[in-house]
Specification:
32% of the residues lie in helices and 21% in strands. α6 links the parallel β7 (159-164) and β8 (182-186). α6 packs parallel to α8 (204-216) and α9 (233-245) packs across α11. The strands form two sheets. It has a nine-stranded mixed beta sheet with strand order 5-1-2-6-7-8-9-10-11. A two-stranded antiparallel ribbon has the order 3-4. It has helices at 65-69, 93-97, 112-121, 123-126, 143-155, 170-177, 192-199, 204-216, 233-245, 261-266, 281-292, and strands at 8-18, 26-31, 52-55, 103-106, 108-111, 131-135, 159-164, 182-186, 218-225, 250-255, 297-300. The protein has two domains: 8-42 and 109-300, TIM Barrel, CATH 3.20.20.70; 52-106, 2-Layer Sandwich (Alpha-Beta Plaits), CATH 3.30.70. It is an alpha/beta fold.
Length: 304
């Protein structure tokens, strides 16, 4: 299987001067679309493959131009029920009309040349270690575009980091690895059934791809720490042992946070976070110590 080239892609955000998405100063590009639907996802705006309407109530000044311009009469003056999502056809006229960016279009088509132009603007700041990181969503979900970005980056001397769940066809993974310098791999759970329960898919292919990626390139593992889901000693130890089997020496533990709650509201979705108990410092330190006992370097939060 050969990846078909793609000279356009759907981008959620381009983050400049990122320092936690690989070594040095980086430009992190968040691609839209993900095959996983993690119950705790902190970036719900990156899951779907199409543009979405985002409404930020605090920016709304009640001018009403959005109400007048909506062809489907899906927008009203009540700030607590601003958009009827069942009527909305995502024409984005309200976003274009709003002077305060209370309405936003999340997800924009970029050509390869336009995106590379944005990335190359930052090249003077990369130094010896910095470069471009592709994240998401899942960058392998837009494999053709990811491949083109990485190929072009390598041609002009920019280092490449892939922030991924590893959920893609193995042939796709192998091809993209040829142009990847570092993999940041998320491992959600080691048990296939529990992985499916939390993300909608099992982890058989993901673990297979983890072995492929680690055999080809340097890897660092990220573990989202989700209370009462993957924080048991059994799962933490299994994750640590799997990382060691890959030749990985560093795991980043990323405790569940609720900073994405507002994003769900702005997308007209229900926040999932009420279903999770809060993690305290003792919970996090216990998890760190379990992983560290296996001889791995451990960071709480990704610190490069």
């Amino acid at each position: 299987m050969t990846i078909m080239p793609a000279n356009t892609g759907m981008i959620t955000e381009i983050k400049k001067f990122a320092t936690h998405d690989g070594p040095g100063i980086r430009t992190t590009v968040f691609l839209k679309g993900c095959p996983l639907h993690c119950a705790w996802c902190s970036n719900p705006e990156t899951i779907e493959t199409f543009s979405q309407l985002y409404f930020r109530p605090k920016r709304c000044k009640g001018f009403g131009a959005c109400v007048d311009i909506c062809p489907e009469k899906a927008v009203g003056m009540d700030i607590d029920a601003k958009v009827d999502r069942k009527k909305c056809t995502l024409c984005m006229k309200c976003a274009a009309e709003c002077p305060n960016s209370a309405f936003m279009q999340i997800g924009e088509i970029y050509s390869l040349s336009d995106l590379m132009r944005e990335i190359e603007k930052d090249k003077p700041f990369y130094g010896k270690e910095g470069g471009v990181t592709l994240s998401g969503g899942e960058p392998l979900f837009q494999a053709g575009f990811t491949l083109q970005i990485f190929k072009r980056s390598k041609e002009i001397g920019i280092s490449t980091v892939l922030d991924t769940s590893g959920c893609a066809a193995s042939e796709v993974v192998r091809e993209i690895m040829e142009y990847t310098d570092l993999i940041l791999l998320d491992i959600k759970h080691m048990d296939p059934q529990m992985h499916r329960q939390g993300t909608g898919v099992d982890n058989v292919l993901i673990l297979k791809n983890a072995r492929i990626m680690a055999s080809m390139r340097e890897m660092r593992v990220s573990l989202p720490l989700i209370p009462d889901y993957n924080d048991s000693e059994e799962n933490l130890s299994a994750t640590a042992e799997f990382a060691l089997s890959l030749g990985v020496d560093h795991i980043d533990i990323n405790p569940l946070h609720k900073l994405g709650a507002d994003k769900y509201t702005c997308l007209g979705l229900a926040s999932p976070y009420d279903a999770y108990r809060p993690l305290d410092k003792q919970d996090v330190m216990k998890a760190r110590d379990i992983v560290k006992a296996h001889g791995l370097k451990v960071t709480v939060g990704r610190m490069m």
